[in-house]
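cron nightly-structures :: item 1 of 1
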Amino acid sequence: MMMARKQDVRVPTYNVSVVGLSGTEKDKGQCGVGKSCLCNRFVRPGADQFHLDHTSVLSTSDFGGRVVNNDHFLYWGEVVRALEDGGECRAQVVEQTEFIDDQTFQPHRSTALQPYIKRAAATKLASAEKLMYFCTDQLGLEQDFEQKQMPEGKLLVDGFLLCVDVSRGMNRNFDEQLKFVSNLYNQLAKTKKPVVVVLTKCDEGVERYIRDAHAFALSKKNLQVVETSARSNVNVDLAFSTLVQLIDKSRGKTKIIPYFEALKQQSQQIAAAKDKYEWLVGRIVKNHNEPWANVSRKMQNAPEYQDYVYLEGTPKAKKLFLQHVQRLKLEHVERRRKAFLAALPQALDALLPELDEIEQLSCSKARKLLETKADFPKWFVVLDETPWDATGHVDDVDDERVPFDLLETPAAEQVYEAHREKLRDERKRAEMRRAFKENLETSPFVTPGKPWEEARSFIMSEDFYLWLDEAVYMDIYGKHQKQLIEKAKEEFQELLLEYSELFYELELDAKPSKEKMGVIQEVLGEEQRFKALQKLQAERDALILKHIHFVYHPTKETCPSCPLCVDSRVEQLLGSRFTRAPKTQPEPGVDRLNLVILGKDGLARELANEIRALCTSDDRYVIEGKVYELALRPIEGNVRLPVNAFQTPTFQPHGCLCLYNSKESLSYVVESIEKSRESTLGRRDGHPGNLPLTLILVNKRGDAGGETLHGLIQQGQQIASKLQCVFLDPGIGYGRNINEKQIGQVLKGLLDSKRNLNLLGDRKEPADADLRVVMCLMCGDPFGADDVLGPVLQSPSCRPGGSAGSVVLDLAVGPHKRRVELSLLSYHASFGLRKSRLVHGYVLFYSAQRRASLATLRAFLCELQDVVPVQLVALTDGATAADLPDNDLSREQLSEGEEIAQDVDGRFAALPGAQPQRKLELFHAFLKDAAEKKTLVEAAHMYDAAAEASGEDAAFNSPRAGSPLCNSNLPDSEEDAEPPGYSPFRDDPKDHSKLSMELEGNDGLSFISVVSAFENKLNNKVPPPVKPKPPVHFELGKADLAYLEQGHRDGRRKSLSAGSWLPADCFDPSDYAEPMDAVARPRAEEENIYSVPHDSTQGKIITVRNINKAQSNGGANNGSDSEMDTGSLERARHGRAKPGLYRARCSRLGRFAGYRGSVGVGSDDELGPGRKKDEEQSAPYKGDNAGVPYEAGDGEDPRRRNILRSLRRTTKKPKAPKPRAPLPKGPWESSYFGVPLGSVVTPERPIPLFIERCIDFIEATGLSTEGIYRVSGNKSEMESLQRQFDQDHGLDLAEKDFTVNTVAGAMKSFFSELPEPLVPYAMQVELVEAHKINDREQKLHALKDVLKKFPKENYEVFKYVIAHLNKVSHNHRVNLMTSENLSICFWPTLMRPDFSTMDALTATRTYQTIIELFIHQCPFFFYNRPLLDPPGPAAPFAPPSPPRTPPPSPHSPVQPLLEQHSL
């Protein structure tokens, strides 16, 4: 029953008296029969309010209180209970007992004490101010408990509960008890009140006692028995409710439940409450350090807690809590232990990493060793108390150090043993890795580029398989291969440098011919370093092409030693030595402004006169309030002539005004700028390449404008845009109508540009140096620029020079002190100076330990004129110069260098590289030689410049500006006396008539004396006084007179100039000049001389023609420098020939000179594809032009004949590329793979089923696969896939679990095995031609037109594949495959060019770009969608594109424009 209340209904009240055996210990034994416990459990059923100890032995003071007194009964209070029928009742409970005096152990006596049996049967109880009893502790402390009085001080008993103790009571006889109960019952029966027998302590009950009690009850009529246990709270309420039913007959009969059945129900209720309580505790308590007070406070309102405490009490609830906390602690300790054990291997790795140190140590000894380590406190903590799990360290989660006493546990010992075993395994694996690597290094079967599959059988052993995982030895092999390849490439690059003479003798250009490549491979073929890259032919060919690119276009970026190039290091050294260049001003407040005025037909001269008219008397001009010295240089002739050059030793231009008033004059301006830029390309001091330009249109006299003027303005604007220069329209007039304001604006703009280039007073004029000496050093040598330039920079007189990489020193040379400009350059940078810059001597350094160093020196020395002094310096690795080399190579290099120096009459020295020479006296003798030969060297330089301008050197504009062709060898015949002219704008011979500027016919050699005098007069400079020299007489032959007469009839000025001669002590050009080489002989109009390949024509052949047209340079004495370019004179020889080359004086130089004439000049593109057919038809090799008919004259040099044949241009239509054989099929004969495309498609199914299946699989599963189509699949799996599909066309790729890369590789293999490529060879030629179109939109439409010509089956499959690749490229952010990367992977498969030819090698970039366009513009090509924007830059991971060889000279940006306007 549960407690309940109903305030709106009258609740009946029943008074119950609980009786039973009472009395002294003799009567009832040592303990009572459980009357008090029964009352306690009924009145206060909560476990916390239930007390087992209710003693009846009291002191006199306790007996005399309001709770216990002489009434000898206890008032337990009243409770309300709900009955089974739904009603409620109120019960007041009293207990009849006998209180014993604790002194006499006899019942306390009262005034009217009756025997217990009579008192227990009383139905009327009265006791004034009787208080409710709780427990024994209440006695004497009544004020601390609730004080509730018995109502009205009296009570009428309605029924009795007769208690019978069925437990084995101490010192109590059950039969005696039963006899007492029988007597008591007889007394109770007299009251006529209902009685219920209550068997107490059934939880300890004796079966016989219970049976006897039931027998007693049966002997009495209508006596009911209830088995109870107050301690277990079983059937207590049932006993009272049974009595209430007997008292109130109107209520239903209560069902009496046997004890054990009731106990089971109670146990189930307790178990359920316990489970709920434990769940509550587990939910609330997560930390084992939680106190009970806090937790109980949190749980007090929870029904789970209240129910359990009601049934079992707070102590049991706390006990369960403590058990839960202990479990949490154990779990925490276990977690910490596992964490410590997990960290222990790391601690042992850090403190005991060496097996030799602990291999023989036990765990206990290892613990002692650990304490001696410096990092011991970092990993372990020694606790003051043990064990560790009983200390506060277990709760310090921030301290992850391992308790040191944990090492004493068996688990820690196991960790230590595992650590030792791991070290043993690592030592064994390391030994296996070393053995495997040593095996790789010593095995002759492992060569660069050899696949692992081929090398496996020679390398692997059982131990390697046992101890090394596949990933490990594959990684070792891959790294070893990478090292092998890098080393082989480095050695091959060194080999190429050792054959520098060969590359320079072949005169390679951007596109070397097949013959030249064949020569290179033939010469290098027997070298072991060449053979080492046999399996990496593509990389080897790329290295050769890269080296050719370096030879042809040498820069710091293309240098093989980049970024350790000598030129870069010199810039760093000079930059750190000279923070700012000193400024020199000729006069305070005055700066110099040098201006070139370029114009034809007198335009330059007249504008120069107009500007001079605006200047002061001393040629000074005021710009923005500041005075500038204005030096004008009008040019109206051929700018290749020294007299018309933009830059001279005394004139450094700061800007150029370009004038034109017609199409012809505009063409002259454009061609002159191109020639000027070409002549300065590759020169370090060639500033005119970036010269600020202003293009000005001036009005013709009497021209009122109209369409002609409008057309000239439009053309001028377009060309100015191409040249990236300023354009001024006819606002500037002609003649005296000059606009001074606009001239001032032009000069101001040029002045700003000059300042931006740091030319205003920041550099000394080159003419300030008395001697110019170049020191050459090989990039990559053991001894670098620091060793050589160190003593130079330490000189007190060292200051920056006038050109990059140079310094100026004041040195005593002979009896005089001279200003010497020293330029420290790399050899590759110096190749461009041999003809383009005036150098008075060369100091050539080389390393005695490196063959390539001396080889490059030989190549450089070959083409050096023999009048230029040279000093060879060998750098050794000895501590002093007297130390002898310790190896044969050094001794050989030293000996060869000394022999070369002797043969060329140069000087030789050997210096220790470790301790560079600290003084410059070593070069004193060399500088003295340079000073003595200064006049001869300058004369030879001027002679070469004049010969170059007159067309004597066909290769004058090469970026290397070296290796002269014609003037280095005597002419083979008279026909060679006049080399061809040149026009940089001709892509085809027929364009010559439109773009030649009538310049080739009058490029005669002007008198040097008149040139110098005129230049000095023009720039207001007076030449220094010189020592007189006897006059020189000239003799003219008949041939010369005829030539002059012919020139007079042609309208050319062939007369001698009336200018002044040079002072007598100056250089006499007759000492070295060969007039017949310098004077161009006239030819009939439109007569073909021969075809000359030129760098700037991008692989085209220029047919040089001599067009005799009148030259209009104005009248005589017009004040222009161009007057001097029309005079020519043949002078008699005076016993000296022109300077030769050092190659002719030393047998060790020019060992590959035989290839110079035997190999065709130019590239394959220049020679034309038609020649290839002739070569195929002729069995033996006959040179480049074996198929070109040519009749040699009698006695003609065969070498010259071969050159001329190679230079003949053929006009045959190019044929399709040679088909490349398809990849060989597998060992099985397939009816599907390797067959023509038409065999596997039908009109109903235009796409091969295999391709369709592969693409479906890839698009379903592989679009996000990184490197799709770039990462190769497993070859065996690819073959297996093809085999299975060949047997079953219904193959499901997804079920077979093939990887994406395997399917992708199999798909590519399908196209590789086709007999003909998917892109037919005939279409490839048309695609390449369409790709050459410059306009992007026209190019794409042309490619689309070519696509329409594809065979239908090829077109459909190509469309299907390209659409798939386009879809793949859309996922490039995930798969990293852009359209460019996909084209790199796919173009060889789709086009299959013949890689054995240079044509295919040089066109690879074109093929790849075409496929990339198809992929990126797929919607446009196949689905008639609009054009897309060009793709962005490639992803960082993408493989680099093949190196592009830059054009030999800047390609004319106005060439298409000139062709458009037919200038």
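cron nightly-structures :: done
Residues 314-351 form the longest helix (38 residues).
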